[in-house]
Amino acid sequence: MTTDYTDCTDFLTMYTYPSRLLENAVNELAKLPGIGRKTALRMALHLLRIPPEEVEAFGQAVIRMRQEVIYCARCHNISDKELCDICAHPKRDATTVCVVEDVRDVMAIENTGQYTGVYHVLGGIISPIEGIGPQDLNIGPLIERASSGELKEVILALPATIEGDTTNFYLYKKLHPLEVPLSMIARGVSIGDELEHTDEVTLGRSILNRTPYQAAK
User: Fold this and answer.
1) Where in the chain is the domain with CATH 1.10.8.420?
2) CATH, domain range 6-68
3) pLDDT per position in the chain (217 positions), as tens?
4) Which of 88, 115, 168, 207 is least surrounded by Cβ atoms within 10 Å, i.e. has the fewest?
5) Which CATH code fits 90-216?
């Protein structure tokens, strides 16, 4: 007979766990972003209720993701192959590069269906408070791509925040001497917003109505 611990959530949160194995699982799940110990406990108890083969499939999926997912050699998007599906797609405009903070922004822009170019994922934005400088980002490879003479436009699609604007200006200083047309998404995205939280219509229009970077300053 399987014991259902669902109703014990509050009790277990306040008192001692009945199993060290359960406690270890909760400790690991609670390390995930946005997951508190109470939610972690709920997840762990759910894993106890489902068939063992489903738990094994879940665990293997996570392990394989961590071991086998790589970064695209060209744009630094996550990928299963050396080149991601976007970079490898023959119908994408490889002369137009959209610069984003991370993979979540690639997914957000792709969901608009309005952009047909390729991307460059910085892997973050400049933030002195958090100790993140230009050397910590994928800026060097972007400069190399721009130096090739094959790019017709670089679109800056970074968050409308102080850190995003700082990164925009840094990239402008690096790219301007290369004479690559530089633009940024229109400010349909509210100041302080992350791209992943912007609705698809607004984000799509921001891409289509992008403006030259100098005129937007």
Assistant:
1) 6-68
2) 1.10.8.420
3) 455 544 544 544 455 788 999 999 999 999 999 999 999 999 999 999 999 999 999 999 999 999 999 999 999 999 999 999 999 999 999 999 999 999 999 999 999 888 999 999 999 999 999 999 999 999 999 999 999 889 999 999 998 888 998 999 999 999 999 989 999 887 654 544 555 655 565 566 566 666 676 644 4
4) 88
5) 3.40.1360.10
Location of structure tokens 């270890």: 24
